[in-house]
TrEMBL record:
It holds the Pfam family Oxidored_molyb. PANTHER family: SULFITE OXIDASE, MITOCHONDRIAL (PTHR19372:SF7), SULFITE REDUCTASE (PTHR19372). Coiled coil: none annotated. InterPro entries: Ig_E-set (IPR014756), OxRdtase_Mopterin-bd_dom (IPR000572), OxRdtase_Mopterin-bd_sf (IPR036374). Keywords: Membrane, Signal, Transmembrane, Transmembrane helix. The keyword Repeat does not apply. Residues 250-402 form the Oxidoreductase molybdopterin-binding domain. The keyword Cell membrane does not apply. Residues 1-22 form the signal peptide. The chain crosses the membrane at residues 71-92, 99-120, 126-144, 175-196. This is Sulfite oxidase.
Length: 524
């Protein structure tokens, strides 16, 4: 059947039909997917693919603008993109059905492609997306046929009514009812699917009941005065629930500790496989280590400090015995993220570990349960692989990690950074004595000095809080006699090698932001 008259109204309705059909494809795939797997479900896989194909500048923009809400922002972006494409799909199908079919099949192919290219999936994981595609096609055909009927001239309608008396003409209201019911059913199916996937997973419960062993080497005692004297400064030890989270995982990978296995291979004399029980039985160490994200802008809060429990990676490497020429370990997570860490950093005496505990608890799921890497002194993107399942001893010349392939550097030593936390940027404070304070870090080098400059005055040394170690951040405070008016507070740190933090501004890409933070406050 061909449309005989066209109106702008019909085009809009066709767009609605496209959206309803796309919703059916996704929701049916998601609901059926819930019975197949709890990880590479179609929506999550599609989202991950969307992330992988998001241009670098947009990703950086998302992280810089939305911080740890970057995922929500990407989801919204994906939703809008799908919505627009679905509108086009409906209009195309209305004008030329064959093209509509091609469009739905293309959509199905993209979803199937996303699912099967995720790490650790089986071919059967494609089945839900195929069924979803078929369902979407049926719904699209149903709705578009209704539209064609609505657009018939009266004589055509009468003609057809005579031939097919059991099929009454469609009204706009009937069309909207059909599209609306489809959309509502899709929303319910998609939500149900997501909830079912979540409920099927019992990893969270297993984590709750896991008893961590005591370390063979306990963490060094933390001096009493590590916390900044200025009220309102970040706690020196970051509680797990407040620890920043940055990763490419749209749904948190759920790995059963009993199923977890780590393979250490590549340029080694002895390939090694470790189970979670092997880790529990190993000589564990505990250590406070501050992590920092390379995407952290100057003054940003993508950094945290926790007490980690784990097996030293150098012990694992001793078992595997790297061969001549190896200079890097490529660590890969269950979801395909990877990091390139210099081999020597994992062999020296810093506390690089395969961590299983964070602040006295098993790793939270979002922070890498059951096992992640923690490497003092390096940004997370080249070292802190969560949900780690594979260590390949290799060479920088032969292998590139996830972010290096996307324009970031291959190595990532943490740059010296000082932050003003109180008062907050653009705060209004009363004149008189104002407590300034914040945090500084230069993991593995330590912080020996923090200086503050008010407007263009002299640099004044701040009071440093106690130092716990060279691999943890260090806090500072300074009393300032504030005079009315607008003021700029600048801060800079000096590391343990005597190097003053550079004032040269650099963007986070490719190897971390630099420059001095400057905070504007108004004194009243
Ligand atoms: N599997 C996996 N591990 C990962 C990442 C990731 O995207 N996937 N991101 C890394 C980055 S960029 C950082 S900064 C740290 C952050 O660790 P956190 O989320 O526990 O703070 O994890 C690292 N480990
Ligand atoms: Mo990061």
């Amino acid at each position: 059947m061909k449309p005989s008259k066209r109106s702008r109204g019909a085009t809009a309705l066709a767009a609605v039909a496209g959206v309803a059909a796309a919703a059916v494809v996704l929701s049916v795939a998601e609901l059926i997917g819930a019975f197949f797997t709890t990880r590479a479900t179609p929506l999550i896989a599609l989202g991950s693919t969307f992330i992988d194909f998001t241009p670098l500048w947009m990703k950086n923009f998302a992280v810089e603008t939305f911080g740890t809400n970057d995922k929500a922002a990407l989801f919204v972006g994906m939703g809008v993109t799908i919505l627009l494409l679905a509108c086009v799909l409906g209009i195309v199908a209305y004008r030329k059905w064959a093209l509509g079919v091609a469009g739905v099949l293309l959509m199905g192919a993209v979803i199937v492609g996303s699912v099967v290219t995720r790490a650790s999936v089986k071919p059967v994981d494609a089945v839900p997306s195929l069924i979803g595609t078929a369902a979407g096609l049926v719904v699209l055909r149903f709705l578009i046929t209704r539209l064609w009927r609505m657009q018939e001239w009266p004589d055509q309608a009468a003609d057809r009514a005579a031939k097919e008396p059991e099929r009454p003409a469609t009204t706009r209201r009937g069309f909207f009812a059909a599209a609306g019911i489809t959309a509502a059913a899709s929303a319910i199916a998609a939500t149900g699917g997501r909830m079912l996937s979540a409920a099927r997973s019992n990893v969270a419960a297993a984590r709750e009941s896991l008893q961590l062993p005591a370390p063979a080497k306990a963490a060094a005692a933390v001096p009493a005065g590590v916390q900044s004297k200025a009220p309102g400064v970040t706690p020196w030890l970051t509680p797990n629930k407040d620890f920043y989270r940055i990763d490419t995982a749209l749904s948190v990978p759920e790995i059963n500790a009993q199923d977890w296995e780590l393979r250490i291979h590549g340029l080694v004399e002895q390939e090694v496989r470790l189970t979670f029980q092997d880790l529990l039985d190993a000589r564990l160490i505990e250590s406070h280590v501050s992590l920092t994200c390379v995407s952290n802008p100057v003054g940003g809060n993508l950094a945290g400090n926790a007490k980690w429990l784990g097996m030293p990676i150098r012990d694992v490497l001793k078992m595997a015995r790297p061969t001549q020429g190896a200079d890097m370990v490529l660590s890969t997570s269950v979801d395909g993220f990877s990091a390139s860490t210099p081999l020597e950093v994992l062999q020296d005496d810093r506390d690089a570990m395969l961590a299983i505990g964070m602040n006295g608890e098993p790793l939270p799921l979002e922070h890498g349960y059951p096992v992640r890497m923690v490497v003092p002194g390096l940004y997370g993107f080249v070292s802190a692989t969560k949900w780690v399942v594979d260590l390949e001893v290799t060479r920088f010349a032969d292998n590139k990690a996830y972010w290096t392939q996307r324009g970031w550097s291959e190595r990532g030593p943490i740059k010296t950074m000082a932050r003003v936390e109180v008062p907050k940027s653009f705060a209004k404070v009363p004149a008189g004595k104002v407590a300034l304070g914040g945090t500084a870090w230069a993991q593995t080098r330590g912080i020996t000095k923090v200086e503050v400059q008010i407007d263009n005055g002299p640099w004044t040394e701040a009071v440093l809080s106690d130092e716990a170690s060279l691999i943890t951040w260090r806090q500072w405070s300074l009393d300032w006699d504030a005079t009315p008016g607008p003021h700029y507070i600048k801060v800079r740190a000096t590391d343990g090698t005597g190097q003053v933090q550079t004032d040269k501004r650099a963007d986070p890409v490719p190897e971390g932001a630099s420059g001095w933070q400057s905070v504007m406050v108004t004194v009243e």
